[in-house]
Amino acid sequence: MRFWHRRREPPLAVDVYGHGRALLLLHGQPGAASDWRAVAEDLAADFRVIVPDRLGYGRTGGKAGGFAVNARAVVRLMGRLGERRALLVGHSWAGGVALQGALDFPSSVAGVGLVSPVVPDEPPSRTDRLLAKPLFGTAVASVLLGTAGRLIASSAGSAAVGRQLQGHEEVAAALGALGASWHHPSAWRSFAIEQRALVEELGLLTARLDGLRAPVAVVVGSADRVIGTEAARRLATEIAGASLEVIPGAGHLLPQLKPASVATMVRALAERAAWP
């Protein structure tokens, strides 16, 4: 099954911060605009920061789609908000959306930020393939995400997070919101659809990477168990001129756990961006 076919998608629900040149921050799989709150509030001093709930998630709802469908929805959102060109920054699965957008709509993309991104030439794991199976993937996602979401969003989970993140209440709150978003059946269905795109669509971008014209920055945590640092390094070497930053000791949830580091990366990328 491919996800490039035309269909009517709902307009993306969006939070907008600040003024200036446009940045679009795209959450991962599953997730919500709130995943980016700390990064967006930091960057709002210098940019107009646009943070949507992607298709199938949060306030946008509707049916999730693959990378091309998401990229088209993002560019449509830019038009709705009067933006001709923006930086696209994608976390995890949405890194594929940012790459797809830069390849399919080069005149709309000033630069690409890849935060703990999926890697196009990384073969899908056996687990990824199992989660991509219709019905089975949704059933497994409901168990995994539902359990993890309840744990993170529970009072005990929030207390544990608070103990680990003393003095960073806003980060604990962001993780609590993330857990709550995982608990909804719509997130399970969207996760399964995006797993099929991960298996069937992502690899198609590999042969197109040398066609990227916008500057690219990759950032990953050294302790990321979802996207390995070696895969991220390989991606950065495959894209001409791409920068790479490895954050020591950090895991996969960089927008929530290392928002200042992510914001610094975005500002550096903006300095290299191809603005009109």
List keywords for this structure.
single chain; 276 residues; alpha/beta; Rossmann fold; disordered N terminus
Overview of this structure, please?
The protein has 11 helices and 7 strands. Residues 1-6 and 145-176 have low confidence and may be disordered. The longest helix is centred in the middle third of the chain and has 18 residues, at 136-153. It is an alpha/beta fold and 276 residues long. 45% of the residues lie in helices and 14% in strands. Helix 3 (94-104) links the parallel strand 4 (86-91) and strand 5 (109-115). Helix 1 (37-43) packs across helix 11, helix 2 crosses helix 3 (94-104) and helix 5 packs across helix 6 (155-164). The N and C termini lie far apart (37 Å). The protein has a 7-stranded mixed beta sheet, with helices on both faces. It has helices at residues 37-43, 67-80, 94-104, 126-131, 136-153, 155-164, 169-182, 185-200, 229-238, 254-257, 259-272; strands spanning 14-17, 22-26, 48-52, 86-91, 109-115, 216-221, 243-247. It has a domain at 14-123 and 202-272: Rossmann fold (3-Layer(aba) Sandwich).
